[in-house]
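Q: I have 608 residues here and want to know how they pack in 3D. Can you give me a structure?
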Amino acid sequence: MAELVAQWQEAWPRALEVWSRYTRLQPAHLCQSQVVAAAEGLRGSFAMIRFADQRVVIDLETIRHLSLEDYGVEILAHEIGHHVLAPANATDHARLLARIRSALPTLHQHAPMVANLYTDLLINDRLQRQADLRLADIYRALMRTSGAQGGDQSQAVGVWPLYMRIYEQLWQLERGELCCAHTDARLETDAWLGARLVRVYSRDWLEGAGRFASLLLPYLVMEQQSHQQAAKLLHDIASAGQGSFPAGLHEVDENEAKGAIHPAEDPLITGLNESWQEALSESAGEDEDMESPALQSTGQTREPFAYGEILRACGLTLTEQEVAIRYYRERALPYLVPYPKQTVPSASEPLVEGLEPWDSGDPLDQLDWLQTLLQAPRVVPGLTTVKRQYGNQPGQERSDQPIDLDIYIDSSGSMPNPKVTTSYLTLAGAIIALSALRAGARVQVTLWSGKSQVTQTAGFVRHEEQVLAVLTGFYGGATAFPIHVLRETYSHARHLERPVHLLMISDEGISTMFDQDEQGNDGWDIAARALQIAGAGGTFALNLPGSDNVYYRGQYMESLKAVERAVNTQGWNLHSITNWEQLMGFAQDFSRRHRRGFRPPAPTGRRP
């Protein structure tokens, strides 16, 4: 095994030069046993890549079992191609899977395998033709190992025979040289279309992904177990995205649905109705007037569930909570707003006022060794040891400090589950909370529904993950505002380091905030006290019916009157909306209203 390791280590620089003399990657991790390879995340295949650390991992024990020891340059160059050509990075890998999934209705589970086969075609065709490497010999060895080679007519169905026949078309090999000698007319036509697709979209491979998936779609139903083992051995990007952070995945590319067509319907591939040169010229002319596909967007966004499915297809092992945190962070980042700050009178500066005894119970870093030794050459703790005594001197410059934010977000049954569908409550809360954290403020989030259904951050925190973890939670129960949380948070002003703004995101259920708590205290008194002690005002962002909805307003008139009373008598600021999408506008309006310095709002008399 040591000789094989040395042989493949020598092949690594040559494999890099196949792509470019300037290609730089970490040396391949050559695992001498399947146990070591499994610890690296390599299972089922003999090679894999990782985008997180741009690494290639090889299972040399499986390589020897498959009799592929002499193909070090070919296999390593292929794995490098996944880093250099396709998919190249985690983001493009996720976009590739999204396009393939759109072309595989009800068969989304096959998207990772189809993506692997497609990118392998692109890489191997280039290595075989331009670098003169022996990729065809590797497939011959794999076919001998899997037993899928031969002239049995019954084997000429499914994805694998089509895939091998595409290689035979690309490399002008005899029929049956890589797979089945007997194929029907349909498979021959599809293999020709697949070969044309690889050549036509070799420089714009993302555009061809949906077409390739559409080509394979009818064959996925006929997939046979005898051919799956060979495909599994080649599945080297199954876990490529583990530990990575694909960006921009929440948006749906405009060409995602347009590209989900069969290659037979693409004139660039078939040349029907117009010559190949005219089709290519026309396509190039259209592309000049269009933005890059990476920048195009239909304005549509994926739902959290679909977003999570694509991440998992990339190889990321994430819980629903972790997917939701990534989703709402990614959607909120483009909309972050300037968060309001307050100007403090002056910043104080420490001033040395003298010395005082240092005892053994005091922190060691407070001991002033210089002054201690000047007082006596023999150090006696508690007798000769001293520390500096500081006072405060008013500074010369005024400073701005952000206002802390306290968010209470409704998670009752009338609210959407943010883990399944887009919750604009969660999104608006994420925009404002992340804006506050970026400005240096601390944020406390309380998620509430029925009685005893309360989740809260550990006080006012500065950690994005903790804030988003609470924002993306869901109960879906009854409606009962956690009055006790509001009472305890603002029981004493000394609990707060600086002014706090209260933000309530709910609907008419916010009126339960003014009920009596479990101790018999009046909710009106608790709300008024909290608003006073917080010191930076409070805002209601409520989904309330419009004035034309007579039935709805009549049904909840008591709740609406409570909100109106709070606005008029306590000074709450009301932002009334008629649908949850308008909360996005509220998040930006929140910043504009207070950009020049936050002031607690006076009673406005505005009615809901």
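Q: Anything worth noting?
A: The chain has four domains: 1-84, 99-248+256-286, 345-399, 402-593. The domain at 402-593 is CATH 3.40.50.410 (Rossmann fold).
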